[in-house]
Amino acid sequence: MTAGNADWRGKLMRTFLSLAAVLCFAGYIFSPPPAQAQDLSDADCQEHFNPFMPALVLKYEVAYRLFWLKLMHLADAVVSAADGEWFSEASGEWRKAYLLIFRLDTLEEPAEAGRGRYSIHNRLATVLLKPSLEPLSFAKRDFMHVDTFFSTIDVNNTEFFSVESGKYDYVKKDLAANAATTNMPYFNRLVSQRSEAFRFMKTLSAFYAGDTNVLSATNGFTISIYTDNAFVPFNVEIAPRLKSVNALNKQYKTIYFEAEPAPEFSGKGRGLSLWVAPFGYVAEVTADPGLVWLADQTFEMGMIPLRADFGLKLGTVRCSLVRINMSASLP
Q1: Does the pLDDT at position 33 exceed 60?
Q2: How many whole angstroms separate alpha carbon 26 and alpha carbon 191?
Q3: Highest mean pLDDT: which range of 8-12, 233-237, 294-298
Q4: How far apart are CA 84 and CA 298, in angstroms?
């Protein structure tokens, strides 16, 4: 394998790590970090979160494409969202919140995890207060093994922060090196970035509800996204009209936008395209009575990503919605 091919594979694998950020940017990511623990567990989730109704579950296929051809099914991603209340150990109170959980898994057998050419198993979680969508706490679990012949990348860590106590608590554990750090110099910018992203999604929802033909004459803006170990400004352009996209054997009218790193940051991050639509509209088109009921009860500003494309030097990684359903519990 040439050095060029090794570099291409490395960029392809790092693209997986961008999926969580982009789905979060699109408005639907959630999960459960308790105030006293930094590792994610379902037991902690159940102890600290009380759901008011069934969870919304979205499943995505992650595939590598060249031109119009799908060449490889790389991974599956699952996003779960629940409406309820979160117990804040800092205040001793239950607070109305959304709990969101994101999982990304490559397709190897469990016994092969951490081996072969690539193996990625990530979980991202956050708690968002209602109705402001202010992030209360955030946690993630990263496991990645990438072998490009010329180099090997191994990541095995957990990361957690919380603002429940009125100040930020942060810890990152490197499980491979058995080391930990509490220094997060970019914390304030990260919180600001998430607030900007959710404010933008609420604006998109209002656009869609107000006029399904023309969005806005002033549809460009810039947002900074933490990628490749740097905050990179992305220039975002929203298409002036809705675009149709096929998903779940249906055709949906979606808001479409593209984001590219600012010219001076062309070596950081990758361009992306995103097709999104309000949850209520998606539920109506799917004609699932349960989803229609859920949309009437919650996630008023929720935007569903139906498709996302991540540009590579050669081809794209596409994240496509393949299932949407309700679940009695968070998977």
Answers
A1: no
A2: 16
A3: 294-298
A4: 10
* Least confident residue range of 7-11, 53-57, 113-117, 131-135: 7-11
- Six token digits for residue 38: 């930094």
CB 67 within 8 A of CB 47: no
- How many Å apart are CA 223 and CA 215, to the nearest integer? 19
The residue type of 192 is S
Map out the domains of the chain as residue ranges.
3-327
Question: Which residues lie below 8 Å from residue 28, measured CB to CB, with a gap of 6+?
Answer: 58, 79, 81, 100, 302, 303, 304, 305
Q: Which of 30, 20, 24 is nearest to 298 (CA)?
A: 30
Phi, psi (5° rounding) for residue 288? -95, 115
Do residues 24 and 312 touch, judged by C-beta distance below 8 A? Answer: no
Q: Is the dihedral angle over the CA atoms 289, 291, 292, 293 positive or is it negative? A: positive
- What mean pLDDT value characterizes the chain? 76
